[in-house]
Specification:
mainly beta; 60% strand
Length: 116
């Protein structure tokens, strides 16, 4: 984990991408990139992106803001399977252990905060 910057442009950060674990890939050949920093009290925050494709994931307690790209996230909310559109400006709260399906149509970038 990196030392937290005093200032950073989340859209311009260069993120090293790695292929998504094959066990998580549903369609395509998505890759992800991330840069993260330690926060106070054991929390962390960072910038994450995913290239086009579909993958499954299991989440942490996270609040994020989509800053670039387009896609959809599908998850269970109040016992119902819900698909939410992701585009710049969307704020999303994910819960620890929540199973999600990320379908990215245009490389998606988010700024996130993980609770301790």
């Amino acid at each position: 984990m990196n030392r937290a910057p005093d200032w950073a442009d989340a859209l311009s950060l260069v993120l090293e991408r790695v292929p998504v674990d094959p066990s998580q890939v549903i369609q395509g050949q998505p890759s992800t990139g991330e840069m993260s920093w330690s926060g106070s009290g054991g929390s962390s925050w960072g910038v994450w992106e995913m290239t086009p494709g579909i993958m499954s994931d299991v989440e942490y307690n996270e609040t994020c803001i989509i800053i670039q790209g387009h896609g959809f996230v599908t998850r269970m909310l109040a016992g119902e399977l819900v698909t939410q559109e992701l585009q710049p400006g969307v704020v999303l709260t994910l819960r620890a252990g929540e199973e999600t399906r990320w379908e990215v149509t245009t490389t998606l970038r988010k700024v996130y905060h993980l609770a301790a």
